Please model this.
Amino acid sequence: CFGVFYSHYTNPVDAKGRVSVPADFRARLGDENQICAWQSAAGPFLQAGGKAMVRAYEQALSKLPSHAPSTRAMARATLGRMRYMAWDSTGRIVIPAVLGEHMGLTSRAVFVGVGPVFEIWDEEVYLAQGDPSVHVTQADWMDLQVDFSAEGGSA
Model:
């Protein structure tokens, strides 16, 4: 089952390219002791998660026509770009250079929880995006149908 990632955290990147995965995110990954991340096609950030996320992508891709060029292209864009990064005893990972270059990683990384996955951004790039709520229209909010009677959500 997926961990659900909430909130955002900013952590420094040291001279060796190490950055701490937020303790809350590590806890949601359980005993995995690693994350998996790849270059997002949606922007200059990494999409990341745990083994359950990888399995979900594998399953989704397996439902598509295996002979279709678009299926192979999507597999290359996700599975082919994924990198596992184990954290050390203090929760730090080393982001591979190719992934760091994609996101423009400099001295600080922002981890943003977006449900079953999380994003990793360079702080300056993230802040340059501005307030994310300005990109959500009233119609978008109307499309969001939240069931407050769901487990744990009753008032």
Observations:
- The mean pLDDT is 88.
- DSSP finds six helices and eight strands in the chain.
- The helical segments are 23-28, 51-62, 69-77, 97-103, 123-128, 138-143.
